[in-house]
Amino acid sequence: FHEEELVARVRIHMKIKLLQDELREKNGRLEELTRIDPLTQIPNRRYFMECFEREFSRAKRYGFPLSYVMCDLDHFKKLNDVHGHQAGDTALIKVASILKETLRDHDTCGRYGGEEFSMVLPETDGEGAVIVADRCRREIEESRFEANGETLGVTMSLGVATFYPDKESGVDDLAGLIKLADEALYVAKDGGRNRVVLDKDS
């Protein structure tokens, strides 16, 4: 073999390897962008629902309870109107950070849309879910954030619903579980906000 040809071939292969590594890294970043909400840096609705579906299937297969929590910031429109959308964005970022820090490692939270968040709590019954949800609620109520030179705070209302695989009557699909949690959230809002309500069938 010729030494110059060998060196040239090695260089070509090294360049190809470098380009492949760069492409792999960019693809990884692109995949992350499609899964993460750009403002709050937690799973977006699409990716959250993928996780939710997986956990629901697992609960059905292994017979574990699965709880779903729908969360909504109280008086968020008023916060935006009075203090500006930057304050609203800061509040969303703060709340997402609290949820991530407060939830257990095997729980998942996501931004459902606007000022709404969702949580899926695997292997957790209704009573346990209320404890987790209320812990999040208290942390949010006690937290403060700075916006436009002011110290502000927010509160959150939460509705909880639980799927029990061995329960003959009750919800048996994802849409039904979401509907029950949404109804419980409405009760929390109607009852004065800044509270956790467990669906009556959970």
Overview of this protein structure:
The protein is α+β, with helices and mostly antiparallel strands. The chain has 6 helices and 7 strands. It has helices spanning 3-35, 45-62, 76-83, 85-102, 126-142, 174-190; strands spanning 66-73, 108-113, 116-122, 145-147, 150-152, 156-163, 196-198. It has a 5-stranded mixed sheet. It has a two-stranded antiparallel ribbon with strand order 4-5. A hairpin with a 2-residue loop joins strand 2 and strand 3 (116-122). Helix 4 packs across helix 5 (126-142). It is flat. The N and C termini lie far apart (76 Å). The mean pLDDT is 92.
Q: In summary, what is this structure?
A:
This protein is α+β, with helices and mostly antiparallel strands and 202 residues long. Helices cover 55% and strands 19% of the residues. Helix 3 packs across helix 4 (85-102) and helix 4 (85-102) crosses helix 5 (126-142).
Q: Could you outline the blueprint of secondary structure elements for this entry?
A:
Elements: H1 3-35, H2 45-62, E1 66-73, H3 76-83, H4 85-102, E2 108-113, E3 116-122, H5 126-142, E4 145-147, E5 150-152, E6 156-163, H6 174-190, E7 196-198
Parallel strand pairs: 6-7
Antiparallel strand pairs: 1-3, 1-6, 2-3, 4-5
Helix pairs in contact: 3-4, 4-5
H/E topology pattern: HHEHHEEHEEEHE
Structural class assignment: alpha+beta
Envelope shape: flat
Q: What is the topology, as strand order, of the major beta sheet? A: 2-3-1-6-7
Beta percentage is: 15-25%
Q: Radius of gyration, Cα only, in angstroms?
A: 22 Å
- Count all strands and give the number: 7
The share of residues in helices is 40-55%
Helical run tally = 6
For the record, give the distance between the C-alpha atoms at the N and C termini, rounded to a whole number.
76 Å
Largest sheet: 5 strands, mixed
The poorly predicted ranges are none
Q: Mean pLDDT score, rounded?
A: 92
